[in-house]
TrEMBL record:
Protein name in UniProt: Cell cycle checkpoint protein RAD17
The entry's keywords: ATP-binding, Cell cycle, DNA damage, Nucleotide-binding, Nucleus
UniProt entry tagged with the keyword ATP-binding: yes
GO BP terms: DNA damage checkpoint signaling; DNA repair; mitotic DNA replication checkpoint signaling
Principal place of residence: nucleus
Disordered: region residues: 391-423
Bias type Basic and acidic residues, positions: 391-402
Domain of life, source organism: Eukaryota
CDD domains for the chain: HLD_clamp_RFC (cd18140)
Lineage of origin: Eukaryota, Viridiplantae, Streptophyta, Embryophyta, Tracheophyta
Amino acid sequence: MNYTSKLDEFENFVERVRKYGLISSSLNGNSKSSIILVIDDLPVTNGRSAFERLQRCLILLVRSTRVPTAILVTDCGNADSSDLTARWLEELQLTLESAGASKVAFNPITNNSIKKTLSRICRQELCNVAAEEIDLIARASGGDIRHAITSLQLFCLKPNVELDLSSSNSTPSCPKENTNVLNEFSGGFSSQYGRDETLTLFHALGKFLHNKRDTENVVSLDQNAFRVGEKFSRLPFKMDSPEKILCQAHGQSRPITDFLHENVLDFVSDEAMDDAWAVASYLGDADLLLATSRRTLNRHSEIENVLQSAAASVAVRGVLYGNFHPSPSRWHAIRKPKLWQIEQSSSHNQNEMLRQRFMEDGGSSSFSEVSVIATEYRPVLKWVGYRKAGDVETHGSEDESVKGMSIDEEESEISDDDDIEDW
């Protein structure tokens, strides 16, 4: 039995629709109702190549469809999602628009409207669902009525599932040790019925680099609380806790630290040299932790997770704390870290050195260390190459001087030599 993926089935369906259109089920030819093809569920693509297949398939459908076609794509929450599927769906929408499709956007439905719809469905289907559970599903749907109805169906299949609001919405990408800390950042509804509230890397970077804070400290401190000096005090954030944002960005410690290294100075005032020094100091500490985590990667995965989480927290909080005098708010272009290009070039050079050494050894498996090859083997090889090039150039100049001589000069030289020999 041959396996056919959903993507293959979708491609075959689109090919049939493009060639033959849809056959109307109406037997009366006089009253022919108009037909609209609605594609409400696209096949899931695993990898870039599969996504490009789906993209080409939909482009062909847009350019050569025989019937009006509507493709339903939900983008609610995709701006704050670090999932590749969300980014690919956005790219897919832009591609379809460039191919000639028209985009019709609908605003999210309010929670009250969703609750009324869910309550009406429960009455018609004779489902006994509490009002609190309906409210929970409505708030978790993010304005998507189809998502809310699907969640209600799943809940009715297992009505005995207990909705624990206090321990819900934990982030699986964070270490287990931080679960208790993250519970207090819960959005107030169960992740079982909620959307993926992750952030893109650039969305998280924007929060950290722009460093938006309240204009005044509205938090009242207890008289017995520990007071920080004015030099070290900061206004409250206009965002969630940095650790929560890191977890929503799937805790990408190394990319976040590298991007902060590359772009943070653009967000610091030109006169704030002390701020730049403080930020660089914290980023240096984060690099030290990340370097330590690389050495323990293959030995202790739990320690490596803790080190990466700590490094990301140090880098982010160091940028937020050190940038006490931010530059005026304006649009900034986020640059790709130059460190990545340096590391890529370094890795390429190391592989090239090992390859050349392997060729020189005639396929022998005994390699020298990369440092030995770089400091001893390569300089000698270049020196030998320069010597060979110099010898070739010397011989070439002699040959050219000989070829450039005229016949008279040759005869004069010969005659002079003869005269000397005769004398």
